[in-house]
Amino acid sequence: MGFFERYLTVWVALCIVAGIALGKVAPEVAQSLDAMAISVNGAPVVSIPIAICLFFMMYPIMVKIDFGEVVKAGRAVKPVGLTLFINWAVKPFTMYAIASFFLGSLFLGFIGPEATDLVKMPLGKDLIVGDTYGSGTVVLVEGVKMLEVPLWRSYLAGCILLGIAPCTAMVLVWGYLSKGNDSHTLVMVAINSLTMLLLFGFLGGFLLGVGKLPVPWQALLLSISVYVALPLVAGYLSRKWIIAAKGEDWFKEKFLHFLTPVTITALLVTLVLLFSFKGDTIVQNPLTILWIAIPLFVQTVVIFALGYALAKFLGLSYENAAPTAMIGASNHFEVAIATSAMLYGLSSGAALATVVGVLIEVPLMLMLVRFCLSTQGWFGARQA
After folding, report:
1. Is beta strand 43-47 parallel, antiparallel or unpaired with respect to 144-150?
2. How many Å apart are CA 216 and CA 67, to the nearest integer?
């Protein structure tokens, strides 16, 4: 790797600090940018500035994909099956168990056993003040009925929403940086997107234990369309046009070389924007951030280790093993944030927990990218 890529973790840290500083020094700028969003049912689902950054983050990856290889990757049963198993049969339940242990037991004394949070009333429920619903009680706050729940359970709800939303956008960046099979990663992005539409509501309702969770179909479809489909279509069409006009040699040696720094630059700009939007919340709740970040960190490492080990056991090549483990470890935090805001409110502990997911996602995934690159020798050549 070059100097820029070698010290990417340093640039990430500097961009996080710069984002938080921007949010504090010029909050009106951050608020104006944050307000530029496409909303569904009153919840911001697609941030326009973030969508622009993600486009330039994804496009250089999408344009280099040979779709003939994508078709071949889709026929590889082992990596596809392993990814689905990790994401939907394991990850949601380990998230629930790990977050419950840390937030409901180990850190409960720090969070406060008596601390409560006010969240939106359950959708479709007509309850009166004083009624109980799950572990919450209906209260009246400034003329509006709210549900008062234990604070740690509100944090747990946010963690669960992260656990049932596997990454469908940023994982393309992690797979690219770890020198994985981009075609396999793209196939898994497509499959996970479709599977999430089917299982997100079911698993959410089961694990949250608050009755049937409404599936944010519009939010999911809009998010996937903007964050994944748009750069995919642009990459596919421009690849065909450039190769037809300039030839494959020019495309590979000139055009792709020009695009090399674009993905990482867009990633760093995205971080500045994200943390300028949410930095004030993080600064105001430093210890709370820590209590939430620790179980999310443990969950990510556990799922990555399981996926990577099983990939090795099944005889996958490194090029397929790395993105398979990355897909399981990372989260679709955009959908998790939008869903938490829609269900519980922007000021809820659940929404804060999903923001913490953003905080630790990039540094932690970059650490796992470095681990993958340093362990390529554990795997043989391409076999699956």
Report:
1. unpaired
2. 30
In Å, what is the CA distance from 177 to each residue of 3, 138, 182, 268? 14, 48, 10, 14
Given a contact cutoff of 8 angstroms between Cβ atoms, the answer to whether 135 and 153 are in contact is yes
What is the full DSSP assignment across 269-302?
Answer: HHHHHHHHHHHHHHHH-HHHHHHHHHHHHHHHHH
DSSP 3-state assignment of 195?
helix
CB atoms within 10 A of CB 285: 16
Task: Please state, in angstroms and as integers, the Cα–Cα distance from residue 158 to each residue in 43, 220, 349, 366, following that order.
Answer: 15, 17, 7, 23
pLDDT per residue as tens, the chain (384 positions): 455 656 666 787 788 788 888 888 887 887 787 778 776 655 566 678 877 887 887 787 678 777 666 666 667 778 888 988 999 999 999 999 999 999 999 999 988 888 888 887 766 667 788 888 777 788 888 788 888 888 898 899 889 989 988 876 678 778 888 888 887 787 787 777 767 767 777 787 778 774 444 445 565 566 667 766 788 788 889 988 999 999 988 988 888 878 767 877 887 887 788 777 766 666 776 788 889 999 999 999 999 999 999 999 998 889 989 988 998 898 877 677 767 776 777 667 887 888 788 778 878 988 999 999 999 988 865 544
The one-letter amino acid code at 142 reads: E
Q: In sequence order, which residues have a C-beta less than 8 Å from that of residue 91 and are 6 or more positions away?
A: 163, 164, 166, 299, 303, 328
Domains, in order of start, for the chain: 3-113+152-378 (1.20.1530.20)
Q: How many CA atoms lie within 13 A of 67 on its CB side?
A: 10
Q: Rounded to 5 degrees, what are φ and ψ at 13?
A: -60, -45
Indicate the Cα dihedral angle 336, 341, 345, 346, nearest 10°: 100
